[in-house]
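ugh ok fine here u go
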Amino acid sequence: MADTHKKHVDEVSGVETTGHEWDGLRELNNPLPRWWLYIFYACIVWSVIYWVLMPSWPLISSYTTGMLGASQREQALESLNSGIAARNEMGAGLADASLEQIQSTPGMLEFAMANGRAAFGDNCAPCHGSGATGSPGYPNLQDDSWLWGGSLDAIHYTIQNGIRSTGDETRLGDMPAFGRDEILSKEEISQVASYVHTLSGGQPEEGVDVAAGQTVFMDNCAVCHGEDGKGNQELGSPNLTDAVWLYGGTIADIKAQVTNSRNGVMPTWGGRLDENTIKSLAVYVHALGGGE
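structure:
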């Protein structure tokens, strides 16, 4: 029986088509390039070799381990442990050195700064910012205004024990909620907020008795912030005269703080971070520009 099927030949290229046609477009029956076929066959061979040698096929509760028994998890752990060992070796001197010795010894200082910068990015930057400039409710670590002191020892203690946190030696210092707890009236809060605003050069709220606000301040606030409003680092009481505000420095912000009292929390890093890392953090933070 004669073959009645005639293959179509493209008039332009002279190549037969496969018989597939879409909207008048016909597929040419060109052979695949040899270089492409060789790569394709090589990939097939490589995949078979890989399946035999390396972990590749998932099972119900495990996977095929391959003839080589390679494990990326073990390799990653080995790399991690190697890095930790190298870091501990480089920082061995920090354990026995004082903060002042670390700061004055070029080799230890270089390591502490690098280690502290990395630890800050991993643990502190989410609150204080990657540049340590803080945000509302989180202190700027680059200025010279310190609630609990900016010396090396003070910074180290704060990092080690935290603020209003879980450590037994954590720093404690709570401001009363003068409005919420009905210690002061709304009028008294307006008066003391205006007075506090003037301590850093601001203008009082129009129509508010600033002299009365000073009296309210002396009776209720001076015990922590001092009669001059310059604060007390032993209590964590901020300096109200330097125009550095943790929760905002407008009269409305001051009223909100006096009324409801926001008291931030910093984690206790002792026990979470090793001592070398805490020392490195203390040296790094101190060097940011605002250390005392």
